[in-house]
Amino acid sequence: MSVRLKDIAADVGVSIVTVSKVLRNLGRVGPKTRARILKRTKELGYRPNLSAYSLATGRTFLIGLIVPDLMHPFFAAIAKCVSGSVRALGYSVVISSSEEDADLERQEIRSLLARRVDALVIASSQRRPAGRVFKEIEDDGVPYILLDRKIPGLKAHFVGVDDEAIGILATEHLIDRGYRRIAHIRGPELSTAEGRLRGYRRALRRHGYNGSERLIVRIGSSDDRGEECGFDAMQKLLAKRPRPDAVFCYNDIIAFAAMRAIRSAALNVPQDVAVIGVSNISKFSPWDTGKVPLSTIDQNVYRIGDQVAKLALRLIDSGAKAPIERILLPPTLVMRTST
Question: What is the DSSP track for 242-309?
């Protein structure tokens, strides 16, 4: 027979309401009583009846997370962090991939709405407010958070890093190291790429550098074809005369590919060309940077995931009409031998 809240309450000698508060992490319950309840809950193998909770609260205890690429280390790390943070409160995360396809993303949003998720977190591939889909989310009364990527013209909750600050930090680091022909491999037309490009240009202007536009190369993809695109972009930069002596890459995957292209041209990093990326993915994934560790801008992925989880839970409690929150985390320079 399954264990019920009343069984735990009877064993510990408290009310059912007190047990419920402890298991849902709500209200004020003394630490000794809380510890006794949690200990007895574990001993009895209690599993919450989510169907009963859903009937009582109108919640499904599901949070939908849509990312552009399930295999990308940055988004995989965030998904793991969010899932771990909400699990203790009885929530599960349903993860979908948009494959960087705006139409597929809209389908995934509607699919998760049909499952009546309590909140949505979206690392969006949309270049604009995307017609009706965000209005559909709002009409359903489901709170949603934009993750990492903003959508121009859309007023929405957001958690991410200051991308213009990333561009400034990376470019000024290269300037401080004495490099003068600083190139930029920029990302696709997303807010992250636009912000990093603005920071790159702003830093160069601040230090009196001119002629940088010829040293900017755009890539088509930063995810599933990121290595191929980064390699091709670096080859284009190496063909320029004079060639750049440093390159700021949109992300670490592009930077790893750029270093491979430099080595293939019988050049050395950083002696011939210095390289800096963004994400610090070697911190949370097994990517091999080769003989030369990559300098990078750390986006603080674990803080992003933690802030996403906390904001999602706050919005579930307060409702979809809560005042807009925009959480912008500062980036951090991680200097290694590639610069």
Answer: SPPSEEEESSHHHHHHHHHHHHHTT--TTTT-EEEEEE-GGGTS----TTSPPEEEE--HHHHHHHHH
* Blockwise average pLDDT, block size 10, the chain, 339 residues: 77 82 73 86 75 63 94 92 87 93 93 94 82 86 95 92 98 97 94 96 92 85 71 96 96 94 97 97 77 94 95 85 90 97
* Closest of 148, 202, 114 to residue 328, by C-alpha: 148
How far is Cα 63 from Cα 83, in angstroms, rounded to an integer? 9
Rounded (5°) CA angle 150-151-156: 75
Both tokens of residue 228? 């191929």
Pairing of strands 62-67, 92-97: parallel
Evaluate whether 57-161+302-330 and 163-298 have a shared fold: yes
CA distance 282 to 43: 39
Structural domain boundaries in the chain: 5-47, 57-161+302-330, 163-298
Nearest Cα neighbor of 119 from 323, 301, 314 is 314
Question: Which CATH architecture describes the domain 163-298?
Answer: 3-Layer(aba) Sandwich (3.40)
Provide the residue type at 113 as one letter: L
Please tell me what DSSP assigns to residue 327.
E
Angstrom distance (rounded) from CA 24 to CA 40: 15
* Cα 76 from Cα 91, distance rounded (Å): 18
**Domain 57-161+302-330 annotated CATH 3.40.50.2300:** yes
Characterise 283 by phi-psi region: left (phi > 0), alpha (psi -120 to 50), beta (else): alpha
Q: Quick check: 337 and 296 in contact, CB under 8 A?
A: no
- Nearest Cα to 301, choosing from 27, 102, 79, 131? 79
- On the 0-12 / 13-18 / 19+ scale of CB atoms within 10 A, 135 is exposed
Quote the CA–CA distance of 8 and 5 in Å, as a whole number: 5
